Amino acid sequence: MARLLPRSLLGQVMLVLALGLMVGQAVSGAMLYRAAEQRRETALVHSLAFRIVAALEGPANAERIARHQARRLNRDGGGHRPHDMRGRARLGVELSQVSPLGQGGKRLPELEATIRDLLDQHDLELSKLVVLRRSAGDDPFLQDRPRFHERLGGEGWQRRQIYVAGIAQDGAPWRIVRVPEPRAPRAIVGSILLQTLVTFVVLVALLFPMLRRITRPLASLTARVDDFARNPDRPVALAESGPEDIRHLIAAHNAMEARIAAMLDEKDVMLGAIGHDLKTPLAALRVRIENVADETQRLRMAESIEDITRTLDDILNLARVGRSTDPLEKTDLAALLSSLVEEYEDMGEPVEMAETDRVVAQVRATWLRRAVRNLIGNALRYGGTARVSLAAEGDRVTIRVDDDGPGIPEDQISAMLEPFARGEASRNRATGGAGLGLTLARAIAEQHGGALSLANRAEGGLRAGISLPR
Prior knowledge:
Number of domains: 3
Radius of gyration: 46 Å
Largest sheet: 5 strands, antiparallel
Pfam family, one: HATPase_c
Structural class: alpha+beta
Strand content: 15-25%
Main location: membrane
Keywords: ATP-binding, Cell inner membrane, Cell membrane, Kinase, Membrane, Nucleotide-binding, Phosphoprotein, Transferase, Transmembrane, Transmembrane helix, Two-component regulatory system
Number of strands: 12
Number of helices: 12
Protein name: histidine kinase
Distance between the termini: 27 Å
Membrane topology: Multi-pass membrane protein
Strand order of the largest sheet: 1-5-4-3-2
Order of helices and strands: HHHEEHEHHEEHHHEHEEHEEHEE
Shape: elongated
């Protein structure tokens, strides 16, 4: 269901507008229909009451009142005059010694009570009163009059009639009058639909340009934020447009983007200075230790210098992620992983290639190689072996590196992704490392719009995965 709903602000606002208008018009239509029904019922009750009173007073008076009430019923009962209305009005009064209840039809007690109340208000009392409904085709009085066959032919015989029979005094004959049941007011539904359509068109014509004036700058701002997240080294000032609130938002974003870009530039300058100021003395120190006579001490010093240099390189690389100048390029990920595995195999490391799907994706190959190397290095360091695989899953592709090590306690997995967090307590790079490998791999994955995940395998060992968009 959620997929059918519009996702844009413009679409959702227009949907809410349409639904609100439909609900409001439905309520209005129901009220108007109910009011028309009440008018129709009131006209019918008055017509029946007057006709039965006129019938009891005398035939001449009955004919006059019947014609008058037929015209009134046609006017108040919905505006539809059937072709047989005049003929029905001239039917006059039927005299019968038999109660109409024995001739079929559905009795209407509520209508009887309403007519009695109306008559009571005018101090008119009837000994007996019966109100019922039946179709014209079931009326023996009409069936016995051939001249009405032509008038009522076709669907006219199916038209329902309201019959009122009354006796003023006990022992007197029944006087029966009949009125065609007014049709339901159909014009209201059509008028409500037309009114709804016209109102919606007018509101759309007025609101659509205003909403576009709001949503177009927001769409541009969204696209700009998304681009800046991927390329923070290229700030672009958006043109301020739209309502005043949107203009202020765009101006604030432009200022924030400029400050972030300035801070990143200052960070790069600072990192360059740190790298130069630290690597230069380390290189000089590496030359000087060659004069140390004790070979054991000289080797230890050289290893310490190399550890410091590699840690410094990791820190600088982590700081530069997201500011890479390497462009995205179509890369065969299976071929990239195979070449990495071959490098480790050439060095005699227990790294193997597992089942792999052939996938081409837009990546920064140099940075992705570094991320996978870090995962393979961790697998070898803590698990002794590494198995690399590639799986395509819908619109994403996942690079997996499995090992057979002890895994990571579940409560420590998220902490392992933080800088300088290590699975081994020593500062020895051969065993514990500097604690930046996973952090750098996560940053590279996020730079590509992906994510890094760690999970203990059911059969033992750890699985590290880099999920990337295809």
